[in-house]
């Protein structure tokens, strides 16, 4: 993988920009100090970019999920059309940014991707709203990975999101080398186990699709492949899915492993299944076997090292 950073959209306040309604920020240290080493952020603050001052009266969502309105909490002034018009234009502009995903500010009436307070006609809030900009972005880019900073504190969601954005980066790098049947087959071959860890069904569908390389029209083949790949990445990995892949990997070592080595691997995988050790433990052992016995297929598998080890993502899942 080259050293060019992943381009990722983000709510500006999460970077420490003082753009919130009260003039504060919501800097997230993991996003700025850790993930920021691998990411080039494209900051967006809907409320400032739509022309509102800082500080300003707080905004809230009112109405129903099917008819959300964005209004000032005190005055009741409705700026729904103003925000939606700007949001449509902004997401179209973001097409030029080559984004691999977006991190939204949770609970924001403009940027929250789910469970935003929506006030009904009795002024009673329920957590059923979606921020107007976040909604426009997700409708415009339905398959791009998106998350909120709060949800990224969950180790499983964090690992899943970051795995997805690094996979999309590798996809873009493959595209930069040109579209060809050979390049598509090479990309798929390297990502087989990673895809399997998300969905065995989509893994099979992609296998059938790639088998048509060289006979089907290339543009359509690439479009269908990316669509299925992104659908797979949206599906969360689980312990049973991971165990399935770990056993699949172990199957490549039937001959070289001693009975003791095989038993050790099975025991460690079982401890992972029982949530006694994190995923990094069986992965470390299997990576050792891959290097020791130089298994050629597995040496190429992205699944074994899908993101920088410095992020320690598999230490907690």
Q: Can you walk through the features of this model?
A:
The chain has 317 residues and is of the alpha/beta class. The chain has 3 domains: 6-153, no CATH class; 155-234; 243-315, no CATH class. The chain has helices at 29-34, 46-49, 80-94, 132-140, 155-176, 181-196, 200-210, 218-234, 239-250, 259-273, 280-293, 296-299, and strands at 6-11, 39-44, 59-64, 67-72, 102-104, 116-119, 125-129, 146-148. It has a 4-stranded parallel β-sheet with strand order 2-1-5-8, with helices on one face. Strand 6 and strand 7 form a beta hairpin. Helix 10 packs antiparallel against helix 11 (280-293). The two termini are 24 Å apart. The mean pLDDT is 96. InterPro entries: 2-thiour_desulf, DUF1722, UCP037004.
């Amino acid at each position: 993988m080259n050293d060019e950073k992943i381009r990722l959209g983000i709510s500006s306040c999460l970077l420490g920009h003082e753009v919130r309604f009260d003039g504060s920020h919501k800097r997230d240290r993991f996003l700025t100090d850790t993930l920021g080493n691998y990411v080039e952020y494209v900051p967006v603050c809907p409320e400032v970019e739509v022309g509102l001052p800082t500080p300003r009266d707080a905004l809230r969502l009112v109405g129903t999920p099917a008819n959300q309105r964005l209004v000032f909490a005190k005055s009741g002034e409705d700026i729904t059309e103003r925000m939606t018009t700007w949001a449509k234009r902004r997401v179209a502009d973001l097409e030029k940014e080559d984004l691999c995903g977006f991190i939204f500010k949770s609970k924001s009436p403009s940027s929250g991707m789910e469970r935003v307070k929506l006030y009904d006609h009795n002024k009673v809030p329920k957590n059923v709203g979606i921020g107007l900009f976040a909604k426009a972005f997700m409708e415009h880019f339905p398959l791009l990975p998106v998350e909120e900073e709060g949800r990224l504190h969950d180790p499983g969601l964090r690992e899943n999101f970051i795995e997805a954005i690094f996979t999309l980066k590798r996809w873009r790098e493959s595209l930069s080398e040109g579209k060809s049947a050979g390049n598509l087959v090479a990309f798929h071959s390297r990502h087989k186990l990673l895809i399997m860890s998300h969905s065995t069904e989509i893994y099979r569908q992609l296998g059938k699709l790639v088998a048509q390389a060289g006979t089907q029209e290339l543009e359509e083949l690439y479009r269908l492949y990316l669509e299925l790949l992104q659908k797979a990445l949206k599906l969360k990995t689980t312990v049973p899915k991971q165990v399935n892949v770990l056993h699949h990997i172990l199957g490549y070592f039937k001959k070289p492993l001693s009975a003791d080595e095989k038993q050790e691997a099975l025991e460690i995988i079982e401890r992972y299944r029982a949530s006694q050790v994190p995923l990094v433990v069986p992965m470390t052992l299997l990576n050792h076997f891959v290097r020791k016995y130089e298994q050629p297929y597995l040496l190429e598998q992205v699944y074994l090292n899908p993101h920088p080890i410095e992020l320690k993502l598999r230490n907690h899942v």
